[in-house]
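testing teh design pipeline on a random one, pls ignore if ur not involved
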């Protein structure tokens, strides 16, 4: 059958995967958003359903005043002796920790901290031992992939941290994962930075602690040399074996807004690439070491149909799964119902690294129509296309001296400008619509039965190339200013 990439669209970076019985489980980074670490399951590797989050309680992760792209970095999910473990980094507090659960559909434990630095931690279990790995600097001051043995019950280090591999020379050696396959230990990592030079490299050895011999043809996967190719940034992979003994890599990548336009604003997404082991024990990945927008393969049954969800509404989404908040929300400011949401504003705005009254859903593709009815009592409320506190576009209904108006506000770095404003009289209701193409957003208001255009804005100014950071655009509903109360109804997000 033929499947298309990405298999999980939108801002779901740094995937890690494990298989238990006939089911695959996958986690992703969440940075400053809460709940933290989205959790998915699949039966076929191409259709993924979100089933929860690993970090659902404020005491599990400190997010207060965390800047955008801080907070929860690259998680790893593993299963051992009937228990699931998820290990990750709070990059803002520089702490590596893990949580566990015996019920993948239930709550996860309080965090257990490991006194080892670096980021992108990994857990490997064998013969009653638990090995903990991260990138960083070992106890002797040597940089690379660092490994120690820990007491899995307490997180206490049982051995000093020791550098076991220093990669192939690319910058930002990160995302280590260790596997034992056919009696050989494989250590896979990424280099080059999670951008256009990203790549997956690996080495192998006879012991889980090395020494490791690098694959002679590294990198095993990268799109870095494919200029003008819309899939870029391939890296940060994790291996998994399917029911039939085939190997796959789940990894991140991103889609440029156009073949020759090197900007991406949807964030880093989840891609699936086939892996093949050769007779000499080395493996290759993808098509000549690259990831494609689609793969034709007999590894997946022809009876499997890749599902595509095109319409998102209040009614067909789950507030606890599809939606998220900025940092830890003040829950009393939110009323979430099956077909509407009521938001109460505070003095915290979208422009600060705190927790404004905001609830968002990820933009999953370039071509989308977003629409919502807003009824406002005081203040301001509307739809924001949110990259970070310094880069977001707002279409909002707001109170003015003699009634209400609809504004289009563009926030790009230090420039925060109301580009267009339309007075709507004494009515406190309006329908707000945003149309998106790969390179442009168009802003529309419907008032008194008429569509009124408020102009356009380029998507590139919400891209990682402009804003920096590691996140992607969220479609957010927000209310600002103390005393403001806004009701949102008839929300639709339709991809074409």
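output:
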């Amino acid at each position: 059958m033929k499947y298309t990439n990405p298999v999980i669209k939108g801002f779901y970076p740094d995937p890690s995967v494990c298989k238990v019985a006939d089911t695959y489980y996958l986690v992703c980074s969440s940075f400053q958003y809460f709940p933290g670490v989205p959790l998915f399951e699949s039966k076929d590797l191409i259709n993924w359903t979100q089933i929860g989050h690993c970090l659902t309680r404020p005491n599990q992760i400190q997010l207060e005043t965390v800047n955008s792209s801080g907070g929860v970095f690259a998680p790893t999910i593993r299963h051992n002796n009937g228990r699931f473990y998820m290990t990750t980094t709070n990059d803002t507090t520089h702490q590596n920790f893990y949580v566990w659960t015996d019920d993948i559909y239930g709550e996860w434990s309080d965090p257990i901290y490991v006194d080892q630095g670096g980021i992108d931690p990994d857990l490997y279990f064998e013969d009653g031992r638990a090995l903990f790995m991260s990138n960083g600097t070992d106890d002797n001051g040597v940089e690379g992939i660092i490994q120690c043995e820990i007491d899995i019950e307490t997180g206490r280090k049982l051995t000093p941290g020791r550098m076991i591999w220093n990669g192939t020379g690319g910058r930002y050696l990160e995302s280590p994962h260790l596997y034992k396959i056919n009696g050989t230990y494989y250590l896979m990592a990424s280099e080059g930075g999670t951008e256009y030079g990203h790549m997956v490299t690996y080495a192998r050895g006879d012991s889980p602690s090395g020494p490791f011999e690098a694959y002679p043809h590294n990198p095993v996967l990268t799109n870095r040399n494919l200029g003008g190719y819309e899939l870029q940034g391939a890296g940060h992979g994790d291996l998994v074996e399917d029911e039939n003994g085939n190997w796959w890599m789940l990894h991140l990548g991103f889609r440029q807004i156009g073949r020759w336009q090197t900007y991406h604003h949807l964030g880093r997404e989840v891609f699936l690439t086939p892996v093949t082991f050769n007779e000499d024990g080395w493996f290759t990945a993808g098509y000549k070491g690259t990831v494609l927008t689609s793969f034709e393969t007999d590894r997946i049954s022809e009876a499997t149909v890749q599902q595509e969800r095109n319409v998102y509404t209040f009614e067909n989404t789950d507030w606890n799964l599809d939606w998220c908040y900025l940092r830890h929300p003040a829950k009393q400011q939110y009323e979430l119902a099956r077909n509407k949401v009521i938001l109460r504003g505070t003095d915290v705005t979208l422009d600060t690294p705190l927790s404004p009254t905001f609830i968002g859903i990820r933009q999953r593709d370039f071509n989308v129509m977003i629409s919502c009815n807003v009824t406002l009592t005081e203040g301001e409320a509307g739809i924001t296309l949110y990259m970070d506190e310094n880069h977001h576009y707002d279409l909002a209904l707001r109170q003015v001296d003699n009634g209400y108006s609809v504004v289009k506000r563009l926030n790009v770095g230090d420039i925060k400008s109301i580009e267009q404003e339309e007075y709507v009289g004494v009515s406190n209701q309006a329908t707000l619509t945003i149309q998106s193409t790969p390179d442009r957003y168009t802003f529309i208001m419907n008032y008194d039965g008429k569509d009124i255009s408020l102009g356009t804005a380029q998507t590139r100014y919400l891209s990682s190339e402009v804003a920096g950071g590691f996140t992607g655009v969220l479609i957010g509903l927000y209310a600002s200013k103390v005393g403001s109360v806004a009701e949102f109804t008839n929300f639709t997000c339709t991809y074409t």
